Amino acid sequence: MMLIGVGVTPDSSFNTENSLRFSGKEKKEWLAARSGLALYVASHRGHLHIIRFLLQNGCNVQYKTHLGNTPLHAAAATGKYDCTDELLANGAQMRDPNREGHTALDVARLCGHKKVERRLFFFQWEERAANLSIKTHLDPSELFAHQKHDSKLKTWLNGSHAKRYMANLIPFQEFQGSHLSAPPKKNLV
After folding, report:
1. What is the pTM of this model?
2. Which residues contact 95 (CB under 8 A, 6 or more apart)?
3. What is the 3-state secondary structure (H, E, C) of 53-101?
4. Closest by alpha carbon to 104, among 83, 79, 123, 76?
5. Which of 39, 44, 62, 170 has the smallest CB count inside 10 Å?
6. Are 39 and 71 within 8 A, CB to CB?
7. What percent of the chain has pLDDT over 90?
8. Cα–Cα distances in Å, from 90 out to 7, 98, 104, 105, 137?
9. Residue 32's pLDDT band (boundaries 50, 70, 90)?
């Protein structure tokens, strides 16, 4: 593949006049910057196969341009739905703002790419839902008043709530004649 020869993978033998003077650490940073820029351009242009190749070869999905834009920002700005999905699946941070303070969701909204905007919004909700804990046991002290008297709950059938509820029931006679055409109530005492 052509990308291997242009210095976007860690094991690349690609060099320039300047890169020949780099130390080991400097060359590694230089290759990382080249692969990050390649990922950004591929995301902008919608080249999904190149994105997959770069990510499989260790490219940093969190790469940022000097304006703070990530490859996810580029895919959102151009409406590249498949690229957005691939970047999210590989750990792209959706809430990471650029220097103007815009997240990828903001960029998709500003550029009018509804499909990408919906996908990013849905992904945001998936992240939130993953952090929720669902209780399997209901503690009666955590219930609202109307929930304590719900006949579907076990506490209503045999707990202290059933006794209080049953004691507070209105006597049957008070409901007699509640229809509008019913005669006026008489004293029940």
Report:
1. 0.65
2. 103, 124
3. HHHHCCCCCCCCCCCCCCHHHHHHHHCCHHHHHHHHHCCCCCCCCCCCC
4. 76
5. 170
6. yes
7. 41
8. 21, 19, 15, 17, 36
9. confident
